Amino acid sequence: MSIVAFVMIALGFAGQLVNSQGLITNCTWQTGLLVDSFLGMYCNNDDWADYSYDWTWLDTNACLANSGGNLYPYGSGNYWSTCKNCSIHKSNVTFLLTCDCLNANSIFSSASYDLNLLVWNHDGILGCLDHIGNKTEKGPF
Predict the structure, then answer these.
(1) How many C-beta atoms surround the C-beta of residue 45 within 10 A?
(2) Which of 6, 18, 53, 97 has its CA 20 to 30 A from that of 30?
(3) In this predicted model, what pLDDT tens digit does every residue of 28-41 receive, in sequence order?
(4) Which of 6-15, 29-38, 106-115, 119-128 reaches the highest mean pLDDT?
(5) E strand or H helix at 44, and its extent?
(6) To 5 degrees, how large is the angle CA 77–CA 17–CA 67?
(7) Which residues sit opposite 29 in a β-bridge?
């Protein structure tokens, strides 16, 4: 691959990242809802002519892994198989996912991860790492 092609691909990817928006700053974190491992909320879309929020769902199981009782970002995730009693604790600063997860001693202990550090919004769709959720104009609220 030529250096020009590589630079053009890299710039295209960087452009997509620039268009992505943060979770707390561009979604209505107050209406965030966790159903099993699925996170749903209203997020800003990019249609500035008809500016609105879209309802979006993301399976957080694809974003996080349980390693020794701690939650970490991981591309193929699968924390849901070793964690239970998950909930979200939200504020205008953090968006914590907290679960009871199996630790290295096979005992459930509390584990948390700030989803604001991992989950992003792009055009009204939540995503994490290389996973993209879905969106609809109508949500539960």
Answers:
(1) 21
(2) 18
(3) 888 889 999 999 99
(4) 106-115
(5) strand 38-44
(6) 20
(7) none
User: Which residue reads 């504020």 in tokens?
Assistant: 91
Cβ-based neighbour number of residue 13 at 10 Å: 10
Region 54-83 average pLDDT: 94
How many C-beta atoms surround the C-beta of residue 105 within 10 A? 9
Task: Please tell me whether residue 72 adopts helix, strand or coil conformation.
Answer: strand
Residue 34 to residue 19: CA distance in whole angstroms: 25
Phi, psi angles (nearest 5°) of residue 93: -120, -45
Asked if 57 contacts 125 with a C-beta cutoff of 8 angstroms, the reply is no
Q: Taking the CB of residue 75, how many other CB atoms lie within 10 A of it? A: 11
What pLDDT shows up at residue 111? 98
Q: Enumerate long-range contacts of 5-8, CB under 8 Å, 24 or more apart.
A: none
d(CA 50, CA 58): 24
